[in-house]
Amino acid sequence: xxxxxxxxxxxxxxxxxxxxxxxxxxxxxxxxxxxxxxxxxxxxxxxxxxxxxxxxxxxxxxxxxxxxxxxxxxxxxxxxxxxxxxxxxxxxxxxxxxxxxxxxxxxxxxxxxxxxxxxxxxxxxxxxxxxxxxxxxxxxxxxxxxxxxxxxxxxxxxxxxxxxxxxxxxxxxxxxxxxxxxxxxxxxxxxxxxxxxxxxxxxxxxxxxxxxxxxxxxxxxxxxxxxxxxxxxxxxxxxxxxxxxxxxxxxxxxxxxxxxxxxxxxxxxxxxxxxxxxxxxxxxxxxxxxxxxxxxxxxxxxxxxxxxxxxxxxxxxxxxxxxxxxxxxxxxxxxxxxxxxxxxxxxxxxxxxxxxxxxxxxxxxxxxxxxxxxxxxxxxxxxxxxxxxxxxxxxxxxxxxxxxxxxxxxxxxxxxxxxxxxxxxxxxxxxxxxxxxxxxxxxxxxx
Length: 447
Hints:
- The structure is a single chain.
- The protein has helices at residues 38-41, 52-71, 83-94, 107-115, 144-151, 179-188, 198-211, 218-221, 235-240, 245-258, 263-285, 308-315, 321-333, 338-351, 356-366, 372-383, 395-402, 407-412, 437-445, and strands spanning 3-7, 28-35, 43-44, 47-48, 76-80, 98-102, 119-123.
- It is of the alpha/beta class.
- The protein has three domains: 1-125, Rossmann fold (3-Layer(aba) Sandwich), CATH 3.40.50; 198-286, Alpha Horseshoe (Serine Threonine Protein Phosphatase 5, Tetratricopeptide repeat); 308-445, DNA Cyclobutane Dipyrimidine Photolyase, subunit A, domain 3 (Orthogonal Bundle), CATH 1.10.579.10.
- Strand 3 (43-44) and strand 4 (47-48) form a beta hairpin.
- Helix 15 (356-366) packs antiparallel against helix 16.
- The mean pLDDT is 97.
């Protein structure tokens, strides 16, 4: 009897998922998901890797996935523990010698799979460029612009696959949950946590494209700091594998062909391509991304040393209202707009002169849409390390542009009661930057 484990981490969906398909060279398949506490409860640079909010959301998602299998009269093993050890124990129990999984981008997760000693069969189901479209890492362009131009104008991506649940899945129902995992669930499960599952993903996708037609104004609304339909919010679902990027891409293309195509419909595909580029960048350079200068030699993995300025930034107490409001929103909701992320990152790196890796670790802790490649590569991009030039933002100018009446700041900083744009005025403890001065004068002139 030939058996294989099928690991559904980052593959929590029924659509476009080759992990569900028949495997001709096996008699039985054993479905499993693993939540590794080390990826949530340990620390890096003195920062816990996940907030309770992010841990609870991930746990609820895995429990929901297990329940979906139960509804199909199938068994999904849920293990909470060291990824490598958990998979080895299940493989020994079922006498399986192969592990089938979604190909990860995070070096840590790839190493965990290799350490099992099992034969690996990896499907890259979360990339746009799969199979024969897979880029050659050795010749991967050094900039996104070059990568995009190499692929356009006739960009072809992997079409989503119609896959039926294989009849090969088999398991002992008594092995679905062990006592250690049950104990962990009893400590951390929160029924009110956000449920970022496939059903929510497909509903959001459909409404954004077809009902609200928000895809038509995406290029112009995506820089908004909040709002229900200004941005897609697909990031939540792409990050955990409950939404296929190929399916999302195809839906946009279908809209362009059936309804209309404009710069906004193009731009959302442009953003998906950015995500794609970072995935291949992470695979190309691996753990070198966590060096102080990313993969630029010499590699320096020494831990950054934060100071009081970083602590205040983490609390949303820097005294610069536009930055603080965005941080408070993140702490409360587990999300921040792309425009907000760029501004708070720039302020931490350039004005507060902190190591960019501290900010990346803080985002890893709090973002419900945390994705290793997108998070760490975007921070490196702002910092100007790796193959990027530094990108410093003017927070006063940005505040006037994206929160001209101060409504966003007052929403997240209720202690700020100043009317109009003047709410953006920095507190006395903030060191004002020379390049802010023209925009500070503009603030004064508006009073």
